[in-house]
């Protein structure tokens, strides 16, 4: 197995001889990394670099991906760079030079979350005359929402919304001069503004997770719950989980609750474990999708989380979302309220959304207890 270069850099311009590689992967989270792995495996690409970006907002960790996680796939990459995301320099000379002289025989693959392209980044990528094959990776919930609707949620000023939208369209048009092909790779295809499951991507992701799981846990029937992080206050999360667990306590199934790795508050664990000592609460860097492959639950239950959607389609496992409770009880911020409404509207055809804990218990009974 080849040995990858592992290095911390300020920005992408520090990567030497970038034109020699067949692909560049730039990701922030473990989910984005897994989607990239699925694409690389399905397209048999193995000569490139991985760029792990820093968390752009206050968080417990600087990087969502650890060196241990990425080194498992060292053989795929010639270089692994932990980028501190200092301001990228504009390489205008590269853009001008490569506009008039390009090798069209063998494109370079550029895998990155979001279909919105940065010219600043692009100017550091096009250091050779190779055209770019751009792959917009599934980044989670925002990938399943129309871009213009997401902007309207973030910015109440209509003029600002359409200004950003117009500028991005213009940047994409300029970028298309350098990009030979552009595609999206994730859980869904967007067909006539409607979401349709991407069976190829789901199958490739399932293979990534099943290869990673060394041995399955020996458990009887279980329900895997996912607790949201920074969406609702912990006391509200405790109230919701307590009501659901109380309603299904006689079901006889194992209950496993997965917390976000950055969720270090112990009050949730202390309250629920004192009342329901037989449940298991997991707080680790293991991704939710990997945990599903490990335990093979009969049912997945969660709120406003990517894993609730991803696991349902990757493994064809019944899923229930209780994010409707957040709206019904008015326990989320105005921003999250708008995001959840859009989320529910986009995925209502695929996922049942519950607006009360009693409705959650009824659906669990229908899916598990009476099966």
Keywords:
single chain; 371 residues; alpha/beta; Rossmann fold; seven-stranded parallel sheet; five-stranded parallel sheet
Task: Describe the overall structure.
The chain starts with a strand and ends with a helix. The chain folds into two domains: 206 residues, no CATH class; 149 residues, Rossmann fold (3-Layer(aba) Sandwich). By secondary structure, it is of the alpha/beta class. Helix content is 40%, strand content 21%. The model has no long low-confidence stretch (mean pLDDT 83).
Using the alpha-carbon principal axes, give the shape.
globular
Distance between the termini: 47 Å
Q: How would you write the strand order of the largest sheet?
A: 1-4-3-2-5-6-7
Strand content: 15-25%
Q: What kind of sheet is the major sheet?
A: 7 strands, parallel
Average predicted local confidence, pLDDT:
83
The topology string of helices and strands comes to EEHEHEHEHEHHEEEHEHEHEHEHEHHH
Protein structure class: alpha/beta
What fraction, in percent, of the residue positions are helical? 25-40%
Low-confidence stretches: none
| Continuous helix count | 14
Radius of gyration based on Cα positions: 22 Å
Write down the domain tally: 2
- Count of strand segments: 14
């Amino acid at each position: 197995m080849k040995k990858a270069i592992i290095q911390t850099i300020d920005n992408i311009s520090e990567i030497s001889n970038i034109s020699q590689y067949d692909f560049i992967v730039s990701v922030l989270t473990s989910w984005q990394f897994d989607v990239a792995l699925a694409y690389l495996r399905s397209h048999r690409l193995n000569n490139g670099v991985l760029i792990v970006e820093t968390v752009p907002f206050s968080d417990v960790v600087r990087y969502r991906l650890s060196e241990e996680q990425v080194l498992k796939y060292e053989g795929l990459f010639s270089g692994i760079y932990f980028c501190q995301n200092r301001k990228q320099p504009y390489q205008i000379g590269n853009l001008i030079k490569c506009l008039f002289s390009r090798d069209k025989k063998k494109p370079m693959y550029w895998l990155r979350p979001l279909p919105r392209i940065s010219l600043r980044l692009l100017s550091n990528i096009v250091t050779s005359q190779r055209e770019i094959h751009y792959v917009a990776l599934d980044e989670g919930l925002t990938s399943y929402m129309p871009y213009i609707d997401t902007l309207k949620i973030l910015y109440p000023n209509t003029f600002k919304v359409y200004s950003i939208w117009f500028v991005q369209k213009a940047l994409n048009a300029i970028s298309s001069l350098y990009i030979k092909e552009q595609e999206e790779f994730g859980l869904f295809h967007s067909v006539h503004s409607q979401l349709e499951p991407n069976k190829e991507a789901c199958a490739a992701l399932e293979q990534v997770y099943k290869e990673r799981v060394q041995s399955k846990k020996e458990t009887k029937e279980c329900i895997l719950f996912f607790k949201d992080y920074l969406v609702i206050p912990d006391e509200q999360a405790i109230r919701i989980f307590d009501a659901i667990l109380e309603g299904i306590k006689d079901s006889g199934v194992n209950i496993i609750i997965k917390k976000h790795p950055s969720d270090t508050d112990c009050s949730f664990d202390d309250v629920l474990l004192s009342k329901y000592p037989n449940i298991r609460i997991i707080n680790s860097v293991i991704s939710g999708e990997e945990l599903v492959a490990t335990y093979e639950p009969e049912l997945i239950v969660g709120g406003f989380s990517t894993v609730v959607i991803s696991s349902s389609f990757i493994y064809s496992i019944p899923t229930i979302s209780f994010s409707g409770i957040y709206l019904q009880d008015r326990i989320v911020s105005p921003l999250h309220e708008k995001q959840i409404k859009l989320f529910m509207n986009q995925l209502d055809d695929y996922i049942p959304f519950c607006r009360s804990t009693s409705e959650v218990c009824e659906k669990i009974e229908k899916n598990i207890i009476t099966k």
